[in-house]
Specification:
The protein is mostly helical. It contains 8 helices and 4 strands. A hairpin with a 2-residue loop joins strand 1 (19-21) and strand 2.
Length: 231
């Protein structure tokens, strides 16, 4: 199946640009969206690389982990993959997912640094948002992957009209969700810069990857009876 062509505007090496407010870098949501969309297309035709700098370097690196994770998840669901291959893929999924979450935190930490640099303090009536900007950017990254692969389905010549129509419906829904989430992110960033909302990084604190917390890592001998009972 042919991959979607990379637009001429995408095929060039991407360069980082920053919006600024009183000398402090501010996130441009349109830049984030353009990065997600262009690199998804590019990485399906060329090796994965991160050519961005500064804030967009963080965004791109987090996006890379989602890109890798997406395709490992596809492999894991193939009935033709052997058990040994599944084990390798599952470990890769675990690794990429941890890195993905780590970089959500890094993006939110960067925002904290920017707010502190501007000496932005939330007002007494400021509220806490249910989602951080880093988490919203992560969702937009995944949305760009979903849209690319749904649109790729429209190029198939081995499907019927019903399949194609279903893809058109899903693409429309994804685009609407992307638009809503993008606007919500813009409003959240505006509120954070104005001190109308509070910002903090929420640590993932994954226990299963911590060798001091996962009993299958720090006490594997004790867990063998449990493994045997499950088999």
């Amino acid at each position: 199946m042919a991959r979607a062509a990379v637009p001429a505007s995408v095929a060039r090496t991407p360069k980082s640009t920053k919006s600024t407010l009183k000398g402090i870098a501010v996130i441009d949501v349109n830049e984030v969206l353009a990065l997600h969309e262009s690199t998804v297309a590019l990485w399906h035709q060329r090796p994965i690389e991160n050519t961005y700098t500064g804030w967009l370097n963080l965004v791109c690196q987090q996006h890379i982990f989602n890109f890798e994770l997406w395709h490992q998840e596809d492999i894991a669901r193939s009935p033709s993959v052997s058990d040994a291959q599944i084990a390798t893929v599952k470990r890769a999924i675990d690794r990429f997912n941890q890195a993905r979450n780590d970089h959500i935190e890094k993006m939110d930490d960067w925002i904290t640094e920017q707010l502190e640099s501007r000496q932005v303090s939330p007002g007494p009536e400021a509220r806490q948002n249910t989602e951080t900007p880093g988490s919203a950017i992560d969702r937009l990254s995944i949305m760009s992957l979903r849209l690319f692969h749904y649109e790729e389905q429209l190029q198939r010549d081995d499907v019927n009209a019903e399949h194609t129509q279903r893809m058109h419906v899903r693409i429309a829904l994804c685009r609407a969700q992307k638009s809503d989430l993008s606007q919500s992110l813009r409003e959240l960033l505006d509120d954070l810069l104005a001190g109308r909302k509070r910002h903090k990084t929420y640590r993932q604190m994954k226990m299963y990857n911590d060798p001091s917390l996962n009993p299958y890592l720090y006490a594997p001998d004790k867990m063998r009876p449990a493994l045997a009972a499950q088999s």
